[in-house]
Amino acid sequence: MATHSSSSSFSTLLTYLQALAQTPRRLASRAPSVSSSYEELNRVKARSGSDMQRTLRWFDLVGLGIGGMVGAGVFVTTGRASRLYAGPAIVVSYAIAGLCALLSAFCYTEFAVHIPVAGGAFSYLRITFGEFAAFLTGANLITEYVMSNAAVSRGLTSYMGAAMGISTTKWRFILPLLPNGFNEIDLVAPAIVLILTLIICYSTRESSVVNMILTTLHILFIAFVILMGLWKGDWNNFTHPGNPQHPSGFFPYGASGVFNGAAMVYLSYIGYDAVSTMAEEVRDPVKDIPIGVSGSVIIVTILYCLMAASMSMLLPYDMIDVEAPFSAAFSGRSEWVARVIGVGASFGILTSLLVAMLGQARYMCVIGRSNVVPAWFARVHPKTSTPVNASAFLGIFTAAIALFTDLNILLNLVSIGTLFVFYMVSNAVIYRRYVMVGTTKPWPTLSFLCLFSLTSTIFTLVWHFTPPGKPKPFLLGACVVIAISILQVFHCMVPQARKPAFWGVPFMPWLPSISIFLNVFLLGSLDGPSYVRFGFFSALAVLVYVLYSVHASFDAEIEGSLGQKNVEIVEESKQSGEEEDPSQKV
């Protein structure tokens, strides 16, 4: 066995067919296998060759978090959520959504401080639920990063055209040989993606500086929009609709409208998770990561609430344009203000695109370190200290898609995969606190997580599909009581197996459980096609894992680059302060 090379399963067609015949045994061995924190921080990290430079501080992370979150989404979702669901109470919806995002951010922060590596959620799930769960979520996340980045880059050309008063037909042309939806060639979108790719390949520090400049300009535009709205707006619009026959008051659609609005606008907060992938390049992870992640979410929540208030003052909620609320609100008053909003939105799209491309490259780099994709992706360049291979490959792939694929064909910005990862990380932080492999039994914690998720799912189904009437409040109340009872029983009967050494989510397990509930609720608000796409890409990821990844991982284990002897594990666990065996199965 020692003579096997890392490519032994793929050296010839015969050896590959023999490897496929052993797939069930290899799946049983590798799929549930978990790594240890010590492995992720040492042997796994060393597979990249050179180290990433620790040059980022807390203010860099705050800037990256704001840049990743405040994209074009807020300019669209605000109008739709206000007009259709919340009315002027859209301000409260943004505050609720911000609280949800902060709870998920806490879960990310605990892991990022504990294992400051570039893998983000992939690494967190790999040390908790095993290789297969990490690969499935990581593959979905990268796919949606690439698709949404391609969509965002094409959307950027539309905003730029609107800001300059130039139709996008000036730089797009039709190739009649290609099918509809793939025949409109956009040369500007891939050019923007490739320029950003060069920046992130050159230096993370310079990427942060570029992001900081663009984010500062974007915040200035947002401040301008807020001040203009407060100056030109009317306080009566908070309570009086344009049409007297429509519901009036600050809460025209009641509490349900506020929460449905929160579910819609929550998608404007997606992007802070990319900050966790920068943990390996942070100078002082214990101090900088909590401030950077939580601080960016809090600042963005304040900005969003002020923007929503400004919009609500400009127009009654029933007169707001659902497609372009801010531009339309000003268009009848100040055309130049509408033009300025287009410029500001362009800066926001650029920053969100830059941060997302930084994040996707680091996810791919760490997945490459784990040997479930070719190790070529894991390489960190010795001069630039950046994952050049992963950055260049994903950048070129994104540019190719943005070149010819229509915006309506691409995945929309609603990211079911990202919400699913948030849900998984919230579960993982509870599991890791209460389960120590070899010391405590996992079944009480797994039973709690399953029962709590099931109760949350039932609540979500009742909320969305049960018609209004007396039974609905009773069913919802019963679900809440059951969920709280399950949580309280678990809290009282199952002790924590470990305490975080540096930073941990407070009020365990209450806050992560609330995050689980909210993410399930938000997942339930997405449309059917989103689940079809998620199912398709998940099935594709499973196919890749079965046909390639599990065999490459198994070969690496045989060779000794994955999985170590028990004596070594015990020694490493002592050094990291954890008595856990990375060869154990979850």
Automatic annotation (TrEMBL):
<feature type="transmembrane region" description="Helical">
    <location>
        <begin position="185"/>
        <end position="202"/>
    </location>
</feature>
<keyword id="KW-0812">Transmembrane</keyword>
<feature type="transmembrane region" description="Helical">
    <location>
        <begin position="123"/>
        <end position="143"/>
    </location>
</feature>
<feature type="transmembrane region" description="Helical">
    <location>
        <begin position="155"/>
        <end position="173"/>
    </location>
</feature>
<dbReference type="Pfam" id="PF13906">
    <property type="entry name" value="AA_permease_C"/>
</dbReference>
<dbReference type="GO" id="GO:0005886">
    <property type="term" value="C:plasma membrane"/>
</dbReference>
<feature type="domain" description="Cationic amino acid transporter C-terminal">
    <location>
        <begin position="503"/>
        <end position="553"/>
    </location>
</feature>
<feature type="transmembrane region" description="Helical">
    <location>
        <begin position="530"/>
        <end position="548"/>
    </location>
</feature>
<dbReference type="Pfam" id="PF13520">
    <property type="entry name" value="AA_permease_2"/>
</dbReference>
<keyword id="KW-0472">Membrane</keyword>
<feature type="transmembrane region" description="Helical">
    <location>
        <begin position="209"/>
        <end position="231"/>
    </location>
</feature>
<feature type="transmembrane region" description="Helical">
    <location>
        <begin position="293"/>
        <end position="316"/>
    </location>
</feature>
<keyword id="KW-1133">Transmembrane helix</keyword>
<protein>
    <recommendedName>
        <fullName>Cationic amino acid transporter C-terminal domain-containing protein</fullName>
    </recommendedName>
</protein>
<feature type="transmembrane region" description="Helical">
    <location>
        <begin position="501"/>
        <end position="524"/>
    </location>
</feature>
<dbReference type="InterPro" id="IPR002293">
    <property type="entry name" value="AA/rel_permease1"/>
</dbReference>
<dbReference type="GO" id="GO:0015171">
    <property type="term" value="F:amino acid transmembrane transporter activity"/>
</dbReference>
<dbReference type="InterPro" id="IPR029485">
    <property type="entry name" value="CAT_C"/>
</dbReference>
<feature type="transmembrane region" description="Helical">
    <location>
        <begin position="58"/>
        <end position="77"/>
    </location>
</feature>
<comment type="similarity">
    <text>Belongs to the amino acid-polyamine-organocation (APC) superfamily. Cationic amino acid transporter (CAT) (TC 2.A.3.3) family.</text>
</comment>
<feature type="transmembrane region" description="Helical">
    <location>
        <begin position="336"/>
        <end position="359"/>
    </location>
</feature>
<feature type="transmembrane region" description="Helical">
    <location>
        <begin position="443"/>
        <end position="462"/>
    </location>
</feature>
<feature type="transmembrane region" description="Helical">
    <location>
        <begin position="89"/>
        <end position="111"/>
    </location>
</feature>
<feature type="transmembrane region" description="Helical">
    <location>
        <begin position="251"/>
        <end position="272"/>
    </location>
</feature>
<feature type="transmembrane region" description="Helical">
    <location>
        <begin position="410"/>
        <end position="431"/>
    </location>
</feature>
<feature type="transmembrane region" description="Helical">
    <location>
        <begin position="474"/>
        <end position="494"/>
    </location>
</feature>
<feature type="transmembrane region" description="Helical">
    <location>
        <begin position="386"/>
        <end position="404"/>
    </location>
</feature>
